[in-house]
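Q: Got a minute? One more chain.
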Amino acid sequence: MPKRVLILSASVGTGHIHAAQAIQNALISIDSEAVVRHEDALEFANPTFRNLMRHGYNELANNAPEVLGLAYEYSERVWSTEIHGVAFERWNSGDLIKLATEFRPDLVVCTHPLPADMTSWLICKKRLWAQHAVVLTDFDLNTMWLCQHYSGYFVALEETLECMVNIGYERSRIIVSGIPVDPIFAATKDKMEMRKKYGLNSESTCILISAGGLGVGPVAEEIVPALMGLGLKSKIQIVAVCGHNDELKQKLDAYSEQIAATSDTSLKVFGLTSQMDELMSAADLILGKPGGLTVAEALSKGLPMVIVNPIPGQEERNSDHLLEAGAAIRCHNLAGLAYKMGLLLNDPSRLAIMRECALRFSRPRAAETVARELLAMIEKSRGCAFHPPDHNCNGSLLGLG
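A: Always. Here it is, folded:
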């Protein structure tokens, strides 16, 4: 009988979706007979809640990131089962229950806290009979990810494993896998070939800017001009990837024409692209915000990071781990950006050490690791009776299977 896997992500940002897609692709590549379905859990929520989560997060990230930081800190209070299942589960589970009933998964995999908590709640209420795995998409643990009922957790760091064990989670059910990225980021691609492919100079220092996540405000608009004062021994070329941010792309397109006429610096601007792995292969370092998936992808390419404007909370924590690993530097303001980057780029030995640190910290085959463990989890569960928790949910941290 084919293994059936339901993957639930949430379109709050793009990282959770990309992690889910990476796991889905890895599962199918390992077990071609597996039936794997990936859904955005927010599509099953009521429209008001869905719009609040999607657009509210983006608005706060761009205009009031300190509010997100406060929310993150508030959620870091000691986890209590009394606050489990308050909003999303009680008001938004109806359509998802229907999906799960019709699809009949052996296992539900969640790459976002909302569907993870909801799945745990449905198992608790005996409205879902399936194994339950949770895949963290940041390097640090936040209590929003914690569920009562789980078959397995996949985390990025040993530190996270130890933290979870110390608060009562079962060591044997926590796997240090890394953050799942598309397997294409594990492929080695020649830097010079990639530069030739995208019309980049083979000799000039190449700075990749993950600009789409920087917002449309002054940081995004001023960061490229700030790099004009780097004072490097060699010429520089800047590659800016704007993603879905069309307004920013238009502004940077106009600016690229301006600087082409007045300086030796070149600027190439991309919108939404599926070739991020090749652009990373062509670059010498990446500048941007430290979202979990962006960081994991850059590390897989051995690409040092220049961190700017991290969102308080999870991105601040990601920054800390990168700095501790020696794979990044952080610029706290645009006034000092050119100076700090200039020091780094004029010191090839330091840059080489940071590349080595990035590769050492990376887990480019995390998606494959997760997929193999998930398939083994299903295989094991089929050989024994499945015992869901008691209906009343006494608050214990129950492993399933």
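A: Residues 184-361 form a domain with the Rossmann fold fold (CATH 3.40.50.2000).
Q: Perfect, thanks.
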